[in-house]
Amino acid sequence: MSKMKVLLVDDEEDYVRTMAERMEMRDVGSRVALSGEEALRMLEDETPDVMVLDLRMPGIDGMEVLERVKKEHPHVEVIILTGHGSDKEEREARRLGAFEYLRKPADTGHLISTIREAWRKSLKATVDFIKDSKDEFGRSMAAAGLASEGSPELAREMMQEPMPRRAEAPEPTQRRADTPAQSLKVLLVDDEEDFVRTMAERMEMRDLGSEVALGGEQALQMIEGEIPDVMVLDLRMPGIDGMEVLRRVKNTYPQVEVIIMTGHGSDVDEEEARRLGAFDYLRKPVDINHLMETVRRAGRSARRRE
Q1: What is the pTM of this model?
Q2: Counting Cβ atoms within 10 Å, is residue 41 exposed (0-12), middle (13-18) or buried (19+)?
Q3: What are phi and psi of 53, to 5 degrees?
Q4: Between 285 and 38, where is the model more confident?
Q5: CB distance 203 to 292 below 8 Å
Q6: Domain encompassing residue 11
Q7: What is the predicted pLDDT for the residue at 136?
């Protein structure tokens, strides 16, 4: 398989070169640009498959680089990696075509996994482009044959007729074939309303919808109406706490996978939660991409239990 071409763009030289070294240790080579201007110049010489791009840079900032890259090199997949981002900037980056939006500090393993997913998408787009170009060439040759045989009008009609659209395969970064994001039922349970609704919004931005329960009692009532595939559950809540909710859910609905996500946990709590059947135990603050990956893994596990 051809080696992927990665361009890292960040004005913090020590950081970006350390990131390049860590990636090299995992057999992922890359080039480095220390500004938006340098990145755009490097694209003129060699187009990468994937660009990892900081937002806050002097001169041409990351958002402008993203917009120009997607207009001039649409097959290049761009991963935003920033330490100063916001939900508003994330929405804008995704609107402009960013493949993913990560926040520093990024786990090297997760970053490389995201780069590989972006590379696969880039390869697929390139293959489709080649196929479409081949189809267009074949039609041009057929039209030329008709014209040479004395049928110029028929040849002209053939070239003016739009090419039939190729059926598009689902993109793995947006829809997982084994766990379609939109059909996965997720219940978020946390008594901190601002936090849980913000989390639901950020998951929705990644095409993963969810329902919200603001306490253990509400969560148990909602399960009686519709059983989720995955529950993301806080531990410290007034009334019925998370550990009791976990116990009841796993006793009554063992197919539901429960992810504990807490800011007040302990090793003892984690041991007890896993004993009761928790799928995973996460501590706040949680990287949204890591949470999404865990939810999808839990969803696949839940579907296998059905």
Answers
A1: 0.47
A2: exposed
A3: -125, 125
A4: 38
A5: yes
A6: 6-118
A7: 54
